[in-house]
């Protein structure tokens, strides 16, 4: 199986797990039910994921990856907060319901420790990637303290604003979410411009 096909299958499993968690709750959903919903054996599912909660990783990672991709497209002369407000988008292969599904998962993390652990791991994995992007823009090393702190602040801005959007639910528009993300990025970066790391 190609890596691309494997990634698509993992994302399909993630969508099904999220659908079942929404309908039945995490406790009432089994790995076998998730596997059955996508036409796989439970054995195959467990080769892809270590627990039923970890089945949501691909959807959560997709939203974090979108943030990183937006950061990579950040023009040198723009404030990051301005760039995010205009450029942030999910990947082309995202399903129409993926953004809402991510917010539903994040909302469930408030009551489901297993999902919370997955969400925090996804955020932890993003931090060194953010540091690499910031370091490359400023001609610095990703190991430098200032770069690592900046990456941690950006990561926290993304996590917190996503959690706030999840709590706000349907009353929040995409514009509201982007405005909140831009505000959090402004607070985290103190007006960082594209070609400099403070």
TrEMBL record:
Keywords: DNA-binding, Transcription, Transcription regulation
HTH tetR-type domain location: 7-67
GO molecular function: DNA-binding transcription factor activity; transcription cis-regulatory region binding
Pfam families xrefs: TetR_C_14 (PF17754), TetR_N (PF00440)
DNA-binding region: 30-49
Keyword Cytoplasm attributed: no
InterPro entries cross-referenced by the UniProt entry: Homeodomain-like_sf, HTH-type_TetR-like_transc_reg, HTH_TetR, MftR_C
UniProt protein name: AcrR family transcriptional regulator
Organism of provenance: Halosaccharopolyspora lacisalsi
């Amino acid at each position: 199986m190609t890596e691309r096909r494997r990634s698509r299958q993992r994302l399909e499993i993630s969508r099904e797990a999220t659908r079942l968690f929404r309908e039945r709750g995490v406790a009432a959903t089994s790995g076998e039910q998730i596997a059955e919903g996508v036409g796989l054996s439970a054995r195959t599912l467990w080769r892809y994921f270590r627990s039923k909660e970890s089945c949501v990783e691909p959807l959560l990672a997709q939203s974090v990856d979108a943030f990183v991709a937006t950061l990579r497209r950040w023009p040198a002369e723009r404030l990051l907060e301005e760039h995010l407000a205009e450029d942030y988008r999910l990947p082309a292969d995202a399903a129409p319901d993926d953004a809402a599904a991510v917010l539903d998962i994040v909302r469930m993390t408030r009551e489901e420790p297993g999902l919370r652990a997955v969400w925090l791991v996804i955020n932890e994995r993003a931090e060194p990637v953010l540091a690499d992007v910031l370091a490359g823009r400023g001609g610095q090393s990703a190991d430098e303290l200032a770069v690592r702190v900046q990456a941690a602040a950006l990561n926290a801005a993304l996590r917190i604003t996503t959690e706030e959007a999840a709590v706000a639910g349907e009353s929040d528009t995409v514009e509201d979410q982007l405005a909140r993300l831009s505000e959090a990025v402004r607070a985290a970066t103190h007006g960082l411009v594209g070609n400099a790391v403070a």
